[in-house]
Amino acid sequence: MVVFDTAPTGHTIRLLELPVDWSKHIEESSKGSGQTCMGPVQLIQESKQKYDDAIAKLRDPAATDFIFVLQPEQTSLEETKRSSGELGEIGIKTTHLIVNGLIPAEEAVNPFFKQRYEMQQQHLAEICKTFGGIPVKTMELFDNELKGLDIVGKSNVSKTTLLEKLLVELKKRGYRVAIVKHDIHGFNIDQPGKDTW
What we know:
The chain has 197 residues and is mainly alpha-helical. The chain has two domains: 9-140, P-loop containing nucleotide triphosphate hydrolases (Rossmann fold, 3-Layer(aba) Sandwich); 145-197, no CATH class. Helices cover 45% and strands 10% of the residues. The chain has a three-stranded parallel sheet with strand order 3-4-5, with helices on one face. The mean pLDDT is 81.
């Protein structure tokens, strides 16, 4: 599994639209002058194939889940509706929604929190109605800060072994733990003999 925690919505939509736009541009240029702003069409056909492959994967619900995380507020709902619609126009379907930052019911005793809780519940109902058959999960506010731990190093220095032991110890202490593997160098995560294979 690869998780992309994307930029703000507008930037993400544009980035996802770019492969479609570039692919169309290359295709149209090949029928005309044979030139693009990136050079001769013949030299960039490989790039077109990469763009087409990327979009095919994003459009394939067996390969990709596109999950919006939103707040239980009107502005967030409107932005998510618009963004989901724009992605739908290029064939990328929203598969799940996560509504984040809900005030727990048991905390809605103070007048401020009660009013906020009631507003959030109305918006949550509207989100479920608006997005019909799309599964909606909710995340309540925590009473403490979520914290992370970075473990960085070269291959074969036992990072995974350390994480496995750390995971067991943190679970014993009652912590909820998630591990995310990340690399900025564009490596292929699926390699035989590696812990992620």
